[in-house]
Amino acid sequence: MTDEVGYLKAQLEEKEKDIVALKNKLAHLEKSNASVLELYEKVTPLTPLKAKASLSNEDIMRYSRQLLLPELGVQGQLNLSKTSVLVVGCGGLGCPLAQYLAAAGIGRLGLLDYDEVELSNLHRQVLHGEENQDQAKALSAANAIKRLNSTVECIPYHLQLSSENALQLIQQYDIVADCSDNVPTRYLVNDACVLSGKPLVSASALRMEGQLTVYNYHGGPCYRCLYPVPPPSETVTNCSDGGVLGVVPGIMGCFQALEVLKIASGQGSSCGQQLVMFDAQDARFRSIKLRPKQAGCAVCGENPSVTRLVDYEAFCGSAATDKCRKLNLLSRDQRITVQDYKSIMDTAEPHLLLDVRPLVEVDICHLPTSLNIPLSSLEYRKSEHIQLLQESISQLKQQMEGDCRPPVYVICKMGNDSQKAVQVMEKMSGSEVDSITVKDISGGLMAWAKRIDPTFPQY
Amino acid sequence: MTAQVTVLYFAKSAELSGLKEEELVAVPTPISSQGLWSLLLQRHPRLCVLQHQVVLAVRQQYVAIGDELVALGDGDEVAVVPPLSGG
Ligand SMILES: [Zn+2]
């Protein structure tokens, strides 16, 4: 009898353990299913983020190494958990920024990007993987963040920030991080932050340099106080044509995360009236003390002229993207297609092919017969390059005997610089060099790769 | 009075001037911040596309380009910092 009671009790205990194990397994599965994220295509109202009364045992263990810091402590951690941050751009800056904010236990992350993941993003946009190509960056980033910390609420926005949606979106967040890649978006985010009173932690990176400032924070300046007039679009270099070493936005994005965490936890940022510059080549940080916000500023000043969001693409004279736009500087008879050029090549018609890209790009790929003289050397009449050009043209002229205007075809990557070069060469024709007929190869080497030679590299 | 200063060029200004750093041996002082900027433009005319888009700093302090008088001392650092927009 007692044996049987003992046996049954043991059995029951065994089954109860099984039940607990099954329940845990179910809960785990349900949790990971719940983390299948919905992609937001438009701005919708969010429920307010609730403040936690205390940290759970799991929180204490997870964040223990930062809880030990007197600068953060339990209160700082609780502050992080009730803070929402909007990350504008999930690229080279936004990826490391979002990663560290999530790891540190920020409450809510809005992850905004209108773009899809491309192979050429992966060297710097470290939340995305090979399998995420063609996926919305916002979703790819949110999924990576969820794997890192499932307790962080992630809202992926697959949309272009605009004058119509920016205020509604930014009003719902406590801190905004500008990780965008173009000038119109920087002005738009700035104005929306000023109009809704949000601190703007802004960073940028290009080539081997980075910059960081916290705008609209504790009486400090806004972006417009510093740069009231947008730069002429032709003077702006972006990462897709200027290049960037991936770790540089990585460092700047981490720096942004640091300042966001200091503001969110309650310590405060020390970059509100400072422009911090990072020079990756010299491994040096420098910082410039800025003036306070300007009474005459168009948006944060005493008599602002900007009291609602405007058309930022018109204001800046450029599109809110870092993709290259196509110039149209020449008439139709000044241009030939890549197919035309292919037949010129095939019939071995005497001509000069001039590649006007910078040397570093010519090293990546080039057509075998091309002469390389960068556009800047033509524009600034760099003597050794002009001499080389003169020689090549007069050789060609001798070779052609009868014809007095030897043909010169100009090529570059996308067909923008080649058009500028044609304009420069037309001015030179007949004076600085022999008279020539100069034409641009429309669409450049990327069109050549797409339409003529699929084995030609694209970049 | 003149001063010997080091000019640091960042971002686009380094590209346009072809330099990251240069020494200017005899800069008049005091000089207006506009005068200082004009002096840099004379040396590097290509910098003119950055007009109105640049942060000028002397001894790591922002100076607005205008009438403000700047006193320079030997060894002072002048920085030319156009904004970066990439990310
Ligand atoms: Zn302002």
UniProtKB/TrEMBL annotation, chain A:
It catalyses: [molybdopterin-synthase sulfur-carrier protein]-C-terminal Gly-Gly + ATP + H(+) = [molybdopterin-synthase sulfur-carrier protein]-C-terminal Gly-Gly-AMP + diphosphate; [molybdopterin-synthase sulfur-carrier protein]-C-terminal Gly-Gly-AMP + S-sulfanyl-L-cysteinyl-[cysteine desulfurase] + AH2 = [molybdopterin-synthase sulfur-carrier protein]-C-terminal-Gly-aminoethanethioate + L-cysteinyl-[cysteine desulfurase] + A + AMP + 2 H(+). It holds the Pfam family Rhodanese. Its cofactor is Zn(2+). Its main location: cytoplasm. Residues 347-457 form the Rhodanese domain. Transmembrane segments: none annotated. Zn(2+) binds at C222, C225, C297, C300. Residues 5-32 form a coiled coil. SUPFAM superfamilies: Activating enzymes of the ubiquitin-like proteins. SMART domains: RHOD. It is an enzyme of class 2 (transferase). Binds 1 zinc ion per subunit. It is found in: Cytoplasm, Cytosol. It comes from the Eukaryota. Keywords: ATP-binding, Coiled coil, Cytoplasm, Disulfide bond, Metal-binding, Molybdenum cofactor biosynthesis, Multifunctional enzyme, Nucleotide-binding, Nucleotidyltransferase, Transferase, tRNA processing, Zinc. Its EC number is 2.7.7.80, 2.8.1.11. Pathway: Cofactor biosynthesis; molybdopterin biosynthesis; tRNA modification; 5-methoxycarbonylmethyl-2-thiouridine-tRNA biosynthesis. One of its GO terms (biological process) is protein urmylation. The active site is at C239 (glycyl thioester intermediate), C412 (cysteine persulfide intermediate). The keyword Transferase applies. Disulfide bonds join C316-C324. One of its GO terms (molecular function) is molybdopterin-synthase sulfurtransferase activity. PANTHER family: ADENYLYLTRANSFERASE AND SULFURTRANSFERASE MOCS3 (PTHR10953:SF102), UBIQUITIN-ACTIVATING ENZYME E1 (PTHR10953). NCBIfam families: PRK05690.1 (NF004281). In the N-terminal section; belongs to the HesA/MoeB/ThiF family. UBA4 subfamily. This is Adenylyltransferase and sulfurtransferase MOCS3. It comes from Gymnodraco acuticeps (Antarctic dragonfish).
UniProtKB/TrEMBL annotation, chain B:
Its main location: cytoplasm. The modification 1-thioglycine is found at G87. GO terms for cellular component: molybdopterin adenylyltransferase complex; molybdopterin synthase complex. It holds the Pfam family ThiS. Keywords: Cytoplasm, Molybdenum cofactor biosynthesis, Nucleotide-binding, Phosphoprotein. GO terms for biological process: Mo-molybdopterin cofactor biosynthetic process. It is found in: Cytoplasm, Cytosol. GO terms for molecular function: molybdopterin synthase activity; nucleotide binding. It comes from the Eukaryota. C-terminal thiocarboxylation occurs in 2 steps, it is first acyl-adenylated (-COAMP) via the hesA/moeB/thiF part of MOCS3, then thiocarboxylated (-COSH) via the rhodanese domain of MOCS3. Pathway: Cofactor biosynthesis; molybdopterin biosynthesis. Acts as a sulfur carrier required for molybdopterin biosynthesis. Component of the molybdopterin synthase complex that catalyzes the conversion of precursor Z into molybdopterin by mediating the incorporation of 2 sulfur atoms into precursor Z to generate a dithiolene group. In the complex, serves as sulfur donor by being thiocarboxylated (-COSH) at its C-terminus by MOCS3. After interaction with MOCS2B, the sulfur is then transferred to precursor Z to form molybdopterin. Heterotetramer; composed of 2 small (MOCS2A) and 2 large (MOCS2B) subunits. Belongs to the MoaD family. MOCS2A subfamily. This is Molybdopterin synthase sulfur carrier subunit.
